[in-house]
Amino acid sequence: MQETDELPWACPWRGWRARFDDPAAPWWGWRSIEKFWVDANFLHGAIPAFVAEKWPALRTLDLYDNDLGGTIPPELARLTGLHQLLLHDNRLTGTVPQALLALPKMQLLQFSVNPELGGCTSEEQLRANPRSVLGLWPHHTAFRITETAAECAAHLGAWVAPPPHDYDGELRAAMHAPLTAEEEAAEDAAGRAGPTKEQHGAEEDEEDEEGELREDEELREEL
After folding, report:
1. 50 and 89: one domain?
2. 161 shares a domain with 92
3. CB-based contacts of 122: which residues, under 8 Å, 6+ apart?
4. What is the pTM of this model?
5. What is the mean pLDDT of residues 173-189?
6. What is the pLDDT at residue 2?
7. Of 55, 69, 75, 130, which sits most exposed with the smallest number of CB within 10 A?
8. Do 72 and 162 fall into the same domain?
9. Whose CA is closest to 62, among 78, 83, 77?
10. Same domain membership, residue 50 and residue 156
11. CB 3 within 8 Å of CB 30
12. Separation of alpha carbons 133 and 5, rounded Å
């Protein structure tokens, strides 16, 4: 198959680049699927409300480290067998549906590094869950864990969405930020010392990888 004929959902070696909520995407026809792991790809769009309808047997949904936006649909709570939901490192907004935290089989729920995502739960609610909800680390979000359910309800009632997060501006600032005096001194010291054994090994690994990529490209051209 020529590279120009490659289907966008056919697991290319460089990762998936597709709209997750596209109703025509082939994965929505996989009704018996139990695990969907597509972390660290280039999926964009939203998490559609029809996930539970299309994937009624789903137990694990891993969508972290993509470029998904929009809200987390409360319809996900219809997946009563769901025990792992990983949504961290995206661009999600709104609040985390309370029903997700109460799912009877939920064990691992992770949604950190979504700065515009809010919501709340309490220590009381977490203790009431028959299973331990592990991985509930809401850092870099507007989500809060309070001591009591009443405090959580008050927080949700007064919650105001944070201002839009400037991801692109943050990236540009990080790329162009000047080095501090300590960082410049560390770089000078590293330059005088020369590459370490670990750095030398990493350079060799990078060269090997580049060679393999060239061989793959040559093979595709031959085909």
Report:
1. yes
2. yes
3. 145, 146, 147, 148, 149, 151, 152
4. 0.67
5. 68
6. 45
7. 130
8. yes
9. 83
10. yes
11. no
12. 44
